[in-house]
Amino acid sequence: MAEFPWRADQARRAARARVQLTRDEIVRTALRIVREEGVEGVSMRRVAAEFRTGPSSLYAHVANKDELLRLMFDEICGEIRIPTEIDPARWKEQVKELARESRRVLLTYNDLAGTAMAGVPTGPNALRSSEAMLSMMMAGGVPVEQAAWALDRIFLYLAADAMEFAMWKRSIRESGETPEHFIQGVREDLASYYAQLSPEDLPNLRKNAEAMVSGDNGLRFEFGLDLLVDGLDRYLG
Amino acid sequence: MAEFPWRADQARRAARARVQLTRDEIVRTALRIVREEGVEGVSMRRVAAEFRTGPSSLYAHVANKDELLRLMFDEICGEIRIPTEIDPARWKEQVKELARESRRVLLTYNDLAGTAMAGVPTGPNALRSSEAMLSMMMAGGVPVEQAAWALDRIFLYLAADAMEFAMWKRSIRESGETPEHFIQGVREDLASYYAQLSPEDLPNLRKNAEAMVSGDNGLRFEFGLDLLVDGLDRYLG
DNA sequence: TTCTAATAGCGAACAGTGTTCAGCGTCAAC
DNA sequence: GTTGACGCTGAACACTGTTCGCTATTAGAA
Description:
Helix content of chain A: 55-70%
Structural class of chain A: mainly alpha
Oligomer: homodimer
Radius of gyration of chain A: 23 Å
Order of helices and strands of chain A: HHHHHHHHHHH
Number of strands of chain A: 0
Number of helices of chain A: 11
Shape of chain A: flat
Mean pLDDT of chain A: 91
């Protein structure tokens, strides 16, 4: 290196260019990490290391880790596919479909959804989703206030479900077993634990151990979504 | 001290006795901290410092921080007051009442509820609450599987709501302002932000800015709870 | 009473974390 | 050519959870 300063200079310039820090690049890199390891894996050092530099270099582009997480969250909200036209007749199915699509995206990025619980997401992409869901409900005849609150509750539900799912994924990953085998094992353990409870104090849990552990995360999500969305019927004009 | 070894010895023994470490004492102390500062404030060093010792001393009574948090969570579940008798005729109101009571307790301990999202709570006190709510729904005629899933969804909703509320509380505390003033300020900021959005891209959010920021956390919680519980009607008999 | 085995508790250390800050080298404008 | 600005960086600070020997005390046996 030092023997060929002209080349070294060129190489350094190239290296610098290759490694040029940008807000977008930082967010993109952090998103790759969160997709693979969850929020836990996203440390300023870890992100910076991907650019072969130290953590302090990031602070020129991002105020702090919290801002980075919020930028990341809004970025993934941009991945939510939003229907081009809303159909008042199918408003409930459209709301559910958008919720499922949102869930699909959130689950892809593990527990990043927890960021949304730290405050109302106001990024442009998050607003696009909110606007879409609000429009659907209002088109269906839900009064504005109820629509606004339902929107709030559904997004809270989405975030919570994503968090729970991320915990499962993390447990599975750490166990090293196959997902099916691991889930089956936990289900059996839990069922036998419930079945072993005191018949006097906890009769219903004991008796219905199988029901308590039935259904996967997807089915339970759908169950809760139905309650939240279908229940809006009562507010219709 | 060193000049009067016999006295020092006595004092040390007294200090040791006064400061005797117990699982329960550790959990109690950690709960006091989480009540005042949230989970963020609960570090092994911080808890140990309350006993005038180092963090390693705790590991004789608690496997790790995760176990400590789980013990703490089950402990607060013991604070949830459960009705002595269930009334099938009032099953929906009883379920809601238990949910409100649970919320009251969870909110007291800031974001400790997040622990529950890391896995199915299986502690004795958590089971007592589950048994109670399950009994109420089954007494009301909800089929077991739907009751079990509803229980799951309601607890997830409770945890999420508590997390969101804890974030608010933290923001308020950090702002130094009075809660009323702070909330009013955020509401106005948010409303004017919505009102400023693009009329072409986000017409509904813009138009209904006031509805978007209306209602406090309690009202929104009640709104979501109604949807979740009342929606169970459809599964009756 | 004396000796021994067990054990609770503890200090120090390790590998991490977010964040700050003085100073570096480079590059653009004058 | 010089200077000013600015992106960038290494080092440091005050933390975090957890582990590992060692010490001091205690309980039980002889």
